[in-house]
Amino acid sequence: MTASPETETNTAIVKLEDVHLSFGQTQVLKGIDLTIYKGDAFSIIGPSGSGKSTILRCINALVTPQSGKITVAGTRVDQLTKESERIQLRKRVGIVFQQYNLFPHLTVLDNIVLAPTKILGADKTATVKLARELLEKVRLSEKADAYPGQLSGGQQQRVAIARALAMKPELVLFDEVTSALDPETVGEVLWVIRDLIRDGMTSILVTHEMRFAEEISDTVVFTENGRIVDHGSPQQIFHTADNPRIRQFVGGLSGGGRGAVRDGEGI
Amino acid sequence: MQDMNLTSLFIELMARLGLNYEFLATGYEAQIWRDGFLTTLYLVAVTIPVSLIVGLIFAACLTSNRPWLSAPVRGFVELTRNTPTLVQLMFSFLVLNTVVSNMVGGAQNNPLSPFFWVVAVVGLHVAALHAEAIRGGIEAVPSSMIEAARGMGFSPFEIMRYVQIPLAFRSSLPAIVNGLISLVKSTTVGNAIAVSEITYASIMVWTQRDNVVELMIVLLAFFSLINFVVARVGSWVERRLAIPGYGL
Ligand SMILES: Nc1ncnc2c1ncn2[C@@H]1O[C@H](COP(=O)(O)OP(=O)(O)OP(=O)(O)O)[C@@H](O)[C@H]1O
Ligand SMILES: [Mg+2]
What we know:
The structure holds two protein chains of two kinds. In chain A, α3 (about 110-120) runs parallel beside α5 (about 155-165), α4 crosses α5 (about 155-165) and α5 (about 155-165) runs parallel beside α6. Chain A has a single domain, classed as P-loop containing nucleotide triphosphate hydrolases (Rossmann fold), CATH 3.40.50. Chain A has helices spanning about 50-60, 85-90, 110-120, 125-135, 155-165, 185-200, 210-215, 235-240, 245-255; strands spanning about 10-25, 25-35, 40-45, 65-70, 75, 95, 170-175, 200-205, 220-225, 225-230. Chain A is α/β, with parallel strands linked by helices. Chain A has a six-stranded mixed sheet, sandwiched between helices. Chain A has a four-stranded antiparallel sheet with strand order 2-1-4-5, with helices on one face. Chain B has helices at about 1-15, 30-60, 65-80, 85-105, 115-140, 145-150, 155-185, 200-210, 210-240. The model of chain B has no long low-confidence stretch (mean pLDDT about 90). Chain B has one domain (about 40-210, about 235-240): MetI-like fold (Orthogonal Bundle), CATH 1.10.3720.10. The radius of gyration of chain B is 22 Å and the shape is flat. The chains are: A alpha/beta, B mainly alpha. The interface of A and B includes residues 90, 101, 115, 119 and 148 of A. The complex binds adenosine-5'-triphosphate and magnesium ion. Magnesium ion binds next to α1 of chain A.
């Protein structure tokens, strides 16, 4: 099931073509097209309920659209028929949610080691070593033996990121990972993501941190009402968009000066 | 003959208090009575793990979204919770056991003993109680945590095994310990189908000796002791599994 190694730098790793999805009567995605290139940072912004989380869930095969083509790292996700095939895909695509959702009964280290060893069947010693390296990367080495309940929100979210990375994913999806955090801890999580993107990890971010999205993204798309209304460079979306809705949205969220990483905009 | 001397000393001392333990000096009745204690301990030791394992399986079935798994278990849990254990035991022994006997060509070929039926009936009855408690714990695991595990590639079974059961077991431990205490007491239904556990053995002795009070004192002390141990082990496990920084 592994993808053929991508050689060119500009290869698409995720491609959605005319994806339609409804939950019952509610049409949530009404024809989504996107292409995400390997090594890119790709941000999805847009109002609440516009379908951002649903797009991520489609990429990770957590939900199955009614129609459209989805290709992720060489796999035609829309053609997967068995849950076991979807599970194989999810192992290759990391996802981090707003609620960090660490396993409360396991230490930080065990949270990171559980899935690679039990789900992927990776070697325990090697995985523990990797987990310690990842903890160092997210600057939480000293918390290896703590339990999630003993950590702050920002610390838990950094562990959640390390946990996703321990699966050695080909890309990582971030769904408003700072929205539930106290303003003081937003920055430390953004630092970790910024480092990750610098290291070349393909990242798809749903975020309300406009300044951060502007800084780190290669491409930004704006979603509204189940459609992609506009896409382009951060410069195009944040500064020269023609669409008044985008101007209003971007302006509204970053209204009070854009000097610092904004806080409290998540919800 | 150290043992013999101790026994007669005990009988003598008790006689001074007006309690008649003379049967202990006899071979036959004393033997029945001692075997009764062992049988009860043996029943408890076998039925506890049976109830726990089956309880976990039942809880997993109850929370499954496959109706062919959840519906039969739901039916069984309701039936067993709402009917007397004694009636279930009689039914199992008199009806199911006979069916088995007929299937294997006669009672002499039937490998299922009365002891087996007590373990099965009491074990499954208490398993149903455990299952309800554990199901509550499984359903209390936040759906966002389950989605996070799914997102990492956990199968439904792996989510159950590594996330839901460990959390549910912790939150339902107090209820499980209560279930085990009632399990210990319920093993006495065995006397209805002549399993010679301690109440059956005691009845045998006191109908001969007319020493109900003497045997009752020991019986009550014996069950209190077992359940004291069960409760202590329960709270030890609870402490061992307590999660730092978590409200359990
Ligand atoms: N499982 C579901 N069943 C029914 N409706 C759903 C489900 N998940 C999402 N929806 C609906 O789909 C729409 C899009 O949801 P989605 O979570 O993708 O939005 P979003 O852009 O991520 O919003 P937010 O910024 O609030 O997170 C919403 O109207 C939501 O109510
Ligand atoms: Mg969302």
